[in-house]
Amino acid sequence: MKPSQASTELTPKGMATRERIVAAAAAEIFERGVARTSLDEVKAAAGVSSSQLYHYFADKHALVLAVIEHQTEAIIAAQQPLLGALDSLPALRAWRDLIVGIQTRLDCRGGCPIGSIGSELAETDPEARTFVLAGLNRWQGAIEQGLRTMRDRGELRAEADPEELALALFAALQGGFLLTQVERDTRPLEVALDAMLDHIASMTATPAA
Amino acid sequence: MKPSQASTELTPKGMATRERIVAAAAAEIFERGVARTSLDEVKAAAGVSSSQLYHYFADKHALVLAVIEHQTEAIIAAQQPLLGALDSLPALRAWRDLIVGIQTRLDCRGGCPIGSIGSELAETDPEARTFVLAGLNRWQGAIEQGLRTMRDRGELRAEADPEELALALFAALQGGFLLTQVERDTRPLEVALDAMLDHIASMTATPAA
DNA sequence: ATAAATATGGATTATCCAGTCCAAAACAGT
DNA sequence: ACTGTTTTGGACTGGATAATCCATATTTAT
Which of A40, A103, A132, A165 is the most exposed place for a label (fewest CB within 10 A)? Predict the structure, then answer.
C-alpha cells in the first residue's frame, strides 16, 4: 500500500518490475535529463503500463529519487575494486585512468550520472538535492578513506588534510565531467584530475616529483 | 523579417524590449533551468505578449541561445577588472575571494549561470552546447591570459603550461560551483580553488610556500 | 480450493505550454 | 499628412504528458 518503500511488501516479480522501471528511467535521464524524460518513454523502454509505474512509484518525483539511488550504487560498483583502496599514488592514478576510460567509452556524453541530476534539480526539488548530496558524499567519502589511509601510513605528510584533499579532488572530477561533456573531449577531465593528483603527490612524505 | 539577428533592423524601443525578454528569461532559467522555465513566466516577468516574444525570437531555442550569450557577458562583466589581470598570485587570490563572495551573496544558489545550462542541454541541443562552450572558453581564456603573462614575466616557471593550468583551475571552479550548489555551502568552492591555486603557487619561480 | 493481496492492462482526463494568427497601434521616413 | 515598417495585444490551437481510474489477471497464504 505504501509504494514509496523500496524493498518490503514486494514479491520477487514485483521487485524485478520495479528494477526494470528504475533502470529504464536512469538510462533515459542520463542522456536527456529529468525534465526531458517523459514517463511514456520510460514505460515503453521498461515495457510496463501506467498502472505498473504508479503502483511502484507515487509520482515522477519518487521515481527520480529512486533513480538517484540507483545511479549512486552503479557508480560505486563500476569503480570497484579500485575505489575501495585509493590508498597510494599508483592506485589514484589507476582510478583516474579508469574514469577517463569510462568517459572515452561514453563518447564524453552524459557527464556525471548524479551530478547532472543535482545540477538540474538543486533549486526546484529539495529532496532530490538531498539524495544527490548523499550519493556524492558516499563517492567522496571513498576517496577520503583512501587518503586517510595514506596519511596514517605516513605516505602523506601529517599536515595534509584528507578530507580537504578529497573534496578538492572530487570537485576537480565534477568540473572535469562537465567540461568534458560540453567540449566532447576527455582532456579537461584528464588535466583537472592530473593537476589535483600532482597536488596530492606534492604532499607525500617522499615527493616523487 | 529575420528575427534571429541580434542588433540590426531594431529600433531603440525594439532593442529595449528584446533585452527585457532576455534578461527575464535569464533570471528565470538561472533559478529553474531551461526545461522548467515556461515562456508564459518569461512573458509575465518581462511584461510582454506572445507576439512580442515571437517577434524577437524564432522559438524557445533561439531565446535560450540569446540567454547563454547574455549570461556570458554578465559573468565577464561581473568579474572585471580582476578577471582582466589575473597575472599574479595576489590577483588570483583576490579573484577567488570575489567569486566566493558572489556565491555567498547568492546563498549558494544557481551554480554557474552557463555551466548549468550546458549540463542540462549538452545532449539534447547541440547548438546550445556550442554556445555554452564559447562562453566557457572566453572565461577560461581570460584566466589563461593572466597565467601566460605571469610566465612571460618569469613569475611562473617556463615548464608551467598556462593553458593546462587555466583549464585545471577552471575545472576546479566548475566543480566547486556544482558542489557548492548541491551542498548549500561555499566550502567546496573555496577548497577546490585554494587547492588549485596552491598548485599554481608551487610552480612559481620563487615558491612562496 | 479459496480468499486476499499483489501485479498488470489500457483507456481517459486535466493541465500545461510552445507556437500561431489576425489584427491594431505606434513609429519612421518622406 | 501619408505610407510602409516596426511593434504590440491577446485569443486560439495542437500536442504532449503527468496522473487517475476501473477492470482483470496473477500470485500467495491458509
Answer: A40
